[in-house]
Amino acid sequence: MTTESTATTIAQYVDAHHADQIAFLREIVRVPSDTPPGNNNPPAEKAAELLTKRGYTVERFAVPEQRVRDYGMVSVTNLIVRHKFGNGGPTIALNAHGDVVPPGDGWSFDPYGGEVKDGRMYGRGVAVSKSDIASFTFALDALKAAEKAGAKLNGTVELHFTYDEEFGGLVGPGYLLEQKATKPDFVIGASFSYAIVTAHNGCLQFEVTVHGTATHGSMPETGHDALQAANAILNAIYGKLPDLGKIKSKVAGINTPTMLVGQISGGTNTNVVPGKVVLKMDRRMIPEENPAEVEAQVRAMIEGAVAGRSGIRVEIKRLLLANALKPLPGQEKLVGALQKHGERVFGETIPALGVPLYTDARLYGEAGIPVVLYGAGPRTVPESNAKRADENLLLEDLRKATQVVACAVAELLTA
């Protein structure tokens, strides 16, 4: 069977089962998986039920309850499906996450309805990344159909459906890798636009607690104002932004490091000098930066901002360290196959670039596994309202992306 006939068989299968795929996606959208709070056993069980109905053996990897709660979530069960083609060959994992951010306000549609209007499905997670649970599942179905029709494929395809990307991935892909449940040769991770993502930023998040001494507002000199000290820290953080703006990444699609304070809390009442203020901050790192050096610099900057202030003490707690995703040898094979078939199916050039956010795909990279992100999605992230009200997915893109993934994987299994 030629490469062209394999692609034709895949396209015919995907087209014939497009309605089934839409129904599959709707069913997983209808099970809430808001993270936080992160009660993600129910959505995993729904996905496992649907996969079992499609004839797959589903392996469940439940993360111990105490570990999940210490992590800040309620429950996590990750899923692996494995399908062997022929003899030998590489193992290619397709990873998508089933957890989503809470829907928030402002929806015109039921965020858990999976409603379809004018060729688009609306619902939380239809773009990020429940769509890729559907695209990867039906891509594997299509590969099985191609093998049955005579395609000579050699290798293993694994579906990794994980449930903590919104919290960083440590009890999702991180847990599967830590438990040695999988060791793929290549990974295609869930994406959020039709481009191929080859690199992304890293992220450091800190909780900064400024301790002072509360006192009556009529006698501020008898206390130590934590908010004044916190303001000095804010000035130091935002005063650093012009310098960060001068640092440029060489990775296309990634610009400069960023830093911000996303949350502030403190004080007890209007007429009381604040005795404690808590800042939560985010420092994005371009792939060229060293995380240990960045963390040391941020800590020194914060401590220096309040140095010498009487009665003031600062605690700095790291909340998250997500390393940047960097290209690894072998990644070019994934990029080449996806671009080739993406350009054929979509009829336009498919770019390969970096993005300024971070994902759990980095954990595969940290394990030395070449990984790229690709899946169903629009030309740009804002088009899908990802993580906003009325998140949506053009269902034609779902169909096309499924073809692209299946054809690219078929090429890697016949190389």
Helix coverage percent of residues? 25-40%
Strand order of the largest sheet: 1-2-6-3-7-16
What's the story with the biggest beta sheet? 6 strands, mixed
The backbone outline, from C-alpha atoms, is: elongated
- Unreliable segments of 5+ consecutive residues: none
- Can you give the mean pLDDT? 96
Number of strands: 17
Structural category: alpha/beta
Series of secondary-structure elements, N-terminal to C-terminal: HHHEHEEEEHEHEEEEHHEEEHEHEHEEH
Kindly provide the radius of gyration, computed on alpha-carbon positions and rounded to a whole number of angstroms: 24 Å
Strand percentage: 15-25%
Q: Termini separation (Å)?
A: 14 Å
What order do the helices and strands come in, and which of them pair?
Blueprint: H1 3-16, H2 18-29, H3 41-53, E1 58-62, H4 65-71, E2 77-85, E3 91-97, E4 115-117, E5 120-122, H5 130-148, E6 155-162, H6 173-178, E7 186-189, E8 196-200, E9 202-211, E10 215-216, H7 226-239, H8 241-245, E11 258-266, E12 272-273, E13 276-285, H9 291-306, E14 313-322, H10 331-346, E15 352-355, H11 362-366, E16 371-373, E17 392-394, H12 395-414
Parallel strand pairs: 3-6, 3-7, 7-16, 8-15
Antiparallel strand pairs: 1-2, 2-6, 4-5, 5-17, 9-13, 9-14, 10-12, 11-13
Helix pairs in contact: 1-5, 1-12, 2-5, 5-12, 7-9, 10-12
